[in-house]
Amino acid sequence: MRQLVAGNWKMNGLGADLAELEALKPAMPGAACEVAVCPPATLLARAAWIAKGAVALGGQDCHAEAAGAFTGDVSAEMLKDAGAAYVIVGHSERRQYHGETDAQVAAKAQAAWRAGLHAIICIGESEAQRDSGQASEICHRQIEGSVPLEADGANTAIAYEPIWAIGTGKTATCDDIAAMHRHIRGCLVERLGPKSAGIRILYGGSVKPANAAEILALDDVGGALVGGASLKAQDFLAIIAAARKT
Ligand code: 13P
């Protein structure tokens, strides 16, 4: 399975920052992994113009409906039209600050597929949940609620992002990551059966050049979802270069 390294720019980036996207292009033909950049929606069309197909693009969220009276929202069809091939759904920042539920995340994943986008469905426990020994149960529940039964390796990746590791500089230990990815794999098999084998499980949370190689070498780590370190081409390229070669 080819790894996927996706950059989530979050609410960062003005037109001038597209120079970072431009700077990724020369390295793309030699990349061992699939690469995607998810800029804010305002930059997507301009990013597509710059990427010219050399770097895949994604949205950071989508509405479940294709169109309608939903002021301020962006549909999966609009992302596709602007040049996206991927969309992140259910990011913990959406769940936390916008109150998104598992059912809404599942509907967004289905919207992504309807538009022809690859869904990156995010799950992950909070620090309090981990400290009280609930991490495995939380991820199990989020998979049951957020991953529709039609998911397979061609349309979906899962991103495991422990909330306490996002933007904090704290990374889960390699043992913790490997154990949780094993657990998530088991949950996917239980929910989806054998077809779940093709679904990549990405790790996210303070992935940076210094730790990318050891994380991306772990069993059943199918790639990385990178926040802060995706904003600078030099750092993001170092993470891309750390992807598994096979
Ligand atoms: P950081 O890499 O900045 O910790 O963010 C991770 C993340 O939330 C990616 O979606």
Question: Could you walk me through the main structural features you see in this protein, from its secondary elements to its overall organization?
Answer:
- This protein is of the alpha/beta class and 246 residues long.
- It has a single domain (4-241), classed as Alpha-Beta Barrel (TIM Barrel).
- Helix content is 37%, strand content 15%.
- Helix 5 (102-114) crosses helix 7, helix 7 packs parallel to helix 8 (174-192) and helix 9 packs parallel to helix 10 (233-241).
- The chain is globular.
- It binds 1,3-dihydroxyacetonephosphate (13P).
Summary keywords:
single chain; 246 residues; alpha/beta; TIM Barrel; eight-stranded parallel beta barrel; 15% strand; globular; binds 1,3-dihydroxyacetonephosphate
What small molecules accompany the polymer chains? 1,3-dihydroxyacetonephosphate
Gross morphology: globular
**SS summary, helix count:** 10
Rounded average pLDDT:
97
SSE layout and pairings?
Layout: E1 4-8, H1 18-22, E2 34-38, H2 44-51, E3 56-59, H3 76-82, E4 86-89, H4 92-97, H5 102-114, E5 118-123, H6 127-131, H7 135-146, E6 156-160, H8 174-192, E7 200-204, H9 209-216, E8 223-226, H10 233-241
Parallel strand pairs: 1-2, 1-8, 2-3, 3-4, 4-5, 5-6, 6-7, 7-8
Helix pairs in contact: 5-7, 7-8, 9-10
The structure holds 1,3-dihydroxyacetonephosphate.
